[in-house]
User: What shape does this take?
Amino acid sequence: MKPSKLHILFWFLRLRFSRYVRSNRISTSRINYWKNTLYRSAFYNQFSSTKDFPVMNKQRFMDHFDAINTVGIEKSEALDVALASEQSRDFTPTIGTISIGLSSGTSGNKGIFLTSPTEKAIWVGAILDRVIGLSFKKRKVAFFLRANNNLYESVKSNSIAFTFFDLKDSVKMHFEKLVELSPDVLVAQPSALLQIAQCYEESTRQPSFTKVISVAEVLEEDQKMYFQRVFGCSIDQVYQCTEGFLAYTCRKGKLHFNEDWLKIEKRYLDDQRFHPIITDYLRSSQPIVRYELNDIIHEGNPCSCGSKATVIDRIEGRSDDVFQFDVQGETVLIYPDFIRRAVISASDDILNYFVRKTSKSQIEVSLEVPAEHSSKEVFDLVRKSLINTLKTFGVQSVEISQIDYVHNPMLKFTRIKNDAR
Ligand SMILES: [Zn+2]
Assistant: This one.
């Protein structure tokens, strides 16, 4: 069910107001309203006297799916509907008026997320306020997504026209259509942006985007600079996952949490990295309460744009992808940043790379290098650099091998991956 335009406008104005007036504070009336809806959840009702809500993760969230949601949907039913829709690539699965979304679980452990028409109106209002912006001029937005999300479809209106490009097909195949369309705004994950940028570099046609928005994956600084150069505009980020629309880029180019409706607790991993634990005061069909994400966040300095909402300096990756080694009986953690630095500092001839820990003491590296360069030579430099980095952590005798570089647009684009669990 699509939310009405009036409903969207209502939320747009409300969220614009709250962004300006109290960028990092949730109103008391909102908290009270949220509490009333929260206790309709059988799961949360049991904590109504203590208010001592447990920290959740995807596993626990899914284990208690039936008791958590307030709309009487069972997990098995939701999963059947969502999987059937993924198969048919008809991305509008609903049960009654509730939309069903599936998160891409890497370990086969998928999360199911429910959205009511009101929550959809809120999301659209927020996206219009913080990402796309309202304009009297008709604008065309091109979306490159792995799966069309019916949330995006609902933003369609007289002033905004959306075109969805399915990443199941190659970007090269879509490129002609993209050039023909000549959209004002381009929205895609970094891996797709990379291919679009490469297509533009090989083409005689130049892009004329007013805005490029990177979603869903970690946008690395080198990629951002490259996209800025090719697309000729700034690259905004949206930190959005199935768990919610979490952060947006302000006019000063900083990524701010939406703290006018999200409470962000920080679980520190060391003195600079934390996992956000989110409580969403606007969700009621499936309350998100103290939900710990395993994204590794670095906090930035306060921003001069006027918003007091927490600034994200960068999203380093996911905790699942931290490399773990056993050194004399102790577990040593090596965060993705260290691996990243070891690789890019090794040679200027690396266009792209992928480092994967495959077992206790084995690492695979694949490198994309310019055609005129020998990837073997570059690999030798990367290998040496990785060994040096590992040594600084006391990690010895790790086997590092090279595998061919293959790009798969359907896979989540992660440069550092840990498959040794
Ligand atoms: Zn700002």
